[in-house]
Every structure is written in C-alpha cells, then in structure tokens.
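hey can u run this one w/ pyridoxal-5'-phosphate bound, need the structure tokens asap thx
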Amino acid sequence: MTLTYLDHAASTPMRPEAIDAMMPFLDGAYANPSGSHRFARQARKAVDESRDIVADVLGCGPNEVVFTGCGTESDNMAIVGALARSTGVAVCPADEHHAVLEVVEHHGGVIVGVDAAGRVDLEALAATLQDLETRSDGVAVVSVMTVNNEVGSVNDIAAVAKVVRRHAPGALLHTDAVQAPCWIDVREVTPHVDLLALSGHKFGGPKGVGVLVERGGPKVDPLIIGGGQERERRSGTHNVAGIVAMATALKLTDEERATEIPRITALRDALVDGLVGALDDVIETVPRHDKVAGSAHVCIAGIESESLLFLLDEADVCASAASACASGAMEPSHVLAAMGIDREIAMGALRLSLGHASTDDDVDRGLEAITAAVTRLRR
Ligand code: PLP
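ok here u go:
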C-alpha cells in the first residue's frame, strides 16, 4: 500500500534527524534534568542547547523560551495566564483554532470578525478594543493567529500589533504561530508580540511538546504549577527527548525554508490547477497570494466532505475537511462560516495540505483519487 499523505497541517512526519536526535534520551540518557548529579546535568545541557536553538530560530532570548506539552497548552497558558493578571477581557478573531477560540469564549471574551480570506478585520478589531477600553475593565490579551490552520491565510501581525498598541496599550498580544514555521520566518513575527505559541509536530518534531515565548520576562501566570521547572513558568519534568527533537526539526525547517517554499508552491499549484482543470465547480477558498505554500483548501460543489473523505480513505489518500460532527449532524467549519462562505458550499470543503515530505507522486495520486471520488459522488 502506498499512502498518499495530504494532511500535513494536521501533523507532519517526523524528520529522520529529529528521531536520531531524540533516541539517546529515550535509550540511555534518561536522567531527570532537574537533578544534581552528572547524569542529570547531561540531560539539562541538552535542554539548554535546545533552548538556544529555538531562541535563535524564533528571534528571542533563551530565557524567553518556555517549553510546554503542546500548542494547545501554550495557547491556554497565554490567554488564561494573561486573564489571571488583569481585570480585562480576552479578544480574538472568529476563525482561531479551538485552542484559542474556546478559551476566549469560555472566559467570556469578545470575538471579532475576519475578512473573506480569513484574516482578522483590523477595523473591527480597532473598534472593539476602543469600545472595551472605554466601556469596560479593558483588555487583558488579544490573540491573533499567524497562519490559519484550515485555509492557510496569513495575518499581518505587525499591522495587528499597531492596532493593539494604539487602542489597548495595556493588553498583551499573543499569536498562535503553530502553523507558521515551515512557511514564515518567525523572527519577523516575534518582535511584534508579547507571547507566541508553537507545536513540535507541525514541522517535523514529535507530538506532545510545544513552546510559549514570553518576551521581556514572565508576562502571564503559569497554568501548571508544582516543581517550578522552566523558572516557575511551567512545572513538570522536562520531556528531554521531545525538546531535543523539536529543536532539531525547527533548525532544519528554518534552514530549508527558502528552498522548500518554491518546491511546495509548485506542488500545491499543480494539485489545485489539476483539480480545477479536471472537475467543474471547484472553488479555491483563499487566493494563493494570501496563503502559505503548503495550503490547498478547496470547496467542491455538489458533494459532501464526509463522503469524499470516506472514498479518499478507501483509496489510501489522507486529507481532512475540518468539519465537526456534532450530535450526528455535520457542521461546516467555524472558519469557513466566519469567512462568510455559504453553508452549502462549505459542506464540500476539502483541506489538502503539503509539507516537507510531499512529492510529485503525492500530487499525481491525490489528483487521480480526488477526481475519481468526486466524479463518483456526483453521479
Ligand atoms: N493552533 C493551531 C493553529 C493548530 O493548527 C494546532 C494543531 O492542530 C494547535 C494550535 C494545537 O497544537 P497541539 O496539537 O500541539 O495541541
């Protein structure tokens, strides 16, 4: 069986170098890095060196890097930790990942609209912040993602920062940059924000390890307390192997980005052009110049994503639709709804995403399988 993997935004395969880097810490150097003996110091050195690598790629100081258990934890810590230090509210756009959106909603925050490409509406954000600053206890934190995980659109974080600093100067700015490292030099994003979240498994590192950058020292309360690791910012014994592998993958991603972007852009264009050429009524959800190279999100008229994914799965093609199945009824994605896409069109959403392991063959096989499946469903 040859698997055609077109779901890199969900999780991308681990880079072999990252697997090699983590192995010694699974099989041999197993000491707890918080210990005082030589064996522990060896593990601590590996964590420290990884911290230096991560800081270099993210454009921050090593002391600003907090290792966490995943991207979801980093997002939760940024928002919950900011709310704990302020009387203000949290604000985010309507198409954020659930790791942000649900936290903001759960804490009675305010949701702002997005444009047709899935980018935060800067005028709406400015008006919301002005209103909250004058008529309530103000704003604790604004969270705007760097790259949208479903449709791949990119927010201009520098422009977001301008709006936030002007209209809510006391608020912290957080960005969920989980989908960014493969496509964007995060060094250009970090200086504009106070907090930034990453997740290891989106760029060739392992699952279950993430980063929260806290620029300029601790800005938020910790979410997990106990042993005081990470300078009291995130307790819990370090996932040494995971941290080392994540740093290795992040460094490679950074080094290869300039050559990977044109390679993946060509593959993505071939995939989308092929689908649009072979099938009627395939809508590109976001124009290519507004999204990252690895994203190929389309809406296919006359079919339902659920049935399409079933047929693709049978053909050994992995893709996703990002619709949630609530109480038996398929609900179109909150991202597409926020972008103002018609419910009927959104029901035919197909998220294809490419990454460092993608090849010409993936595109050829994916095209053939999707074209055959859609033709069958439309019959
Ligand atoms: N934020 C975004 C934009 C994501 O795409 C994801 C993962 O799908 C997360 C947060 C959550 O990251 P993790 O899977 O590490 O919890």
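The longest strand covers residues 295-300. anyway lmk if its weird
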